[in-house]
């Protein structure tokens, strides 16, 4: 029941777009901090997080087939 409600909430394009934007902004901040401070671990983490944020976008929503 809770999982179904969460699934419906998560599948809304607006919700996924907002969460993806937040994740990308966090990744960019980490990347900029990594470049400015010379800590390449933060830069690498920022690049990975930006990629994950891009994968979370609303274009990734796939409709499930109804089971009969």
What is the total tally of β strands? 0
| Helix content estimate | over 70%
Q: Which range does the strand content fall in?
A: under 5%
Order of helices and strands: HHH
Quaternary class: single chain
Q: N- to C-terminal separation?
A: 19 Å
Main sheet makeup: none
- Helix/strand-derived category reads mainly alpha
Approximate shape: elongated
Rg measurement, Å: 16 Å
Low-confidence parts, pLDDT < 50 over ≥5 residues?
none
Which features does this protein show?
68 residues; mainly alpha; 3 helices; 74% helix
Walkthrough of the structure:
There is one protein chain. The protein has 68 residues and is mainly α. The chain is 74% helix and 0% strand. The protein is built from 3 helices and no strands. The longest helix has 25 residues. The protein is elongated. The model has no long low-confidence stretch (mean pLDDT 83). This is DUF3099 domain-containing protein. Keywords: Membrane, Transmembrane, Transmembrane helix.
Q: Short description, anyone?
A:
The chain has 68 residues and is mainly alpha-helical.
Topology record:
Elements: H1 2-10, H2 13-37, H3 40-55
Helix pairs in contact: 2-3
Organism: Agromyces tropicus
Keywords: Membrane, Transmembrane, Transmembrane helix
Protein name: DUF3099 domain-containing protein
């Amino acid at each position: 029941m809770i999982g179904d409600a969460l699934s419906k909430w998560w599948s809304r394009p607006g919700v996924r777009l907002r969460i993806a934007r937040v994740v990308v902004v966090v990744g960019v901040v980490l990347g900029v901090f990594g470049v400015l401070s010379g800590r390449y671990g933060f830069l690498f983490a920022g690049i990975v997080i930006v990629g994950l944020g891009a994968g979370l976008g609303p274009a990734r929503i796939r409709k499930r087939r109804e089971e009969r």
